[in-house]
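In line with agreed milestones, work has continued on tokenised descriptions of protein folds. One protein thus recorded appears below exactly as we store it:

>
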Amino acid sequence: MKTFFTSIFALLLISFSLNSFAQQKRKTLVEIRGDQFFINDKPTYPGRYWKGNKIEGLLMNSRMVQGIFDDLNPETVKNWEYPDTKAWDADRNTAEFIAQMPNWKAHGLLSFTINLQGGSPFGYSQGQPWINSAFTESGEIREDYFQRLEKILDRADELGMAPIVGFFYFGQDERFTDEKAVIRAVENAVDWILEKGYTNVLIEVNNECNVRYDHEILQPERVHELINLVKSKEKDGRRLLVSTSYGGGAVPKENVVKSSDFILLHGNGVKDPHKITAQVEATRNVAGYSGQPILYNEDDHFDFDQELNNFTAATAAYASWGFFDYRMKDEGFEQGYQSVPVDWGINSDRKKGFFNLLKEITGY
């Protein structure tokens, strides 16, 4: 019996040592101080101004939600065949994502959103018969998804990037059996991130909480409960920074604003850049707003060659901005970061337009 307990103690000690080592080797720490993002004790883009607009402290990003995509539905997986191999390959997708990350960072991209239930691989869609979820129906994690996620988060840590990990996506949340499974999924995902020792990760509970979610706890009136759940979980005195988003053009409600560490906005449907400025101002006037950073992590408007566009309007309002691009009808493989299969390079005119303007604004 003594030998048995000695063995158990030794295993626990080894486990503790491995977890401690994981935390010690992490290179990137993201923090929020006032309305600014800090990475490794320095504000992002330190000292940077562009056309009179302060850039220091912003977190420019792109919607890269399909980095760990897979389809567990044998009836729909054929939709995602690569043009060269005529087959889908989830590991290839993640490997090609990782290969491009240094290129994104070299243009000034410090963050990207990656989702555990992806996003529509057609850009926008009503029905979603494909099955793309890093969680089982009961809220347990699927190891293959999280192994791919680990590779991406490890590389982000090495590069000094601060990814936004989104948990849920409408159209896939319905696969959970009940609310308890949703809560279990949040707990399991947060525990996994904390156990791995990541200090560079931000959390988006769900993408556009006011759009077609089946479970009430993922809808606007109650989603703050999940935000607070994420905030309540700590390891070694640290917790994850968390928020959630609404649909394009919407201003978050008071319950979300009060609970969130940073405020997520979407610019879809906002064609007039002046309305981006108005959206930011309206958000700052919501009851309970306490000066948190405001960050767009989805906007499918471009016009990057124009003096005024949604990107520059957000920047002028001191809000971070996020590029959302998908492959439109009859476009080639190089187009879009959300459409599967994905060309993760900077190979289309829209991608080049965004990254060139990003590099100019951030001074990279």
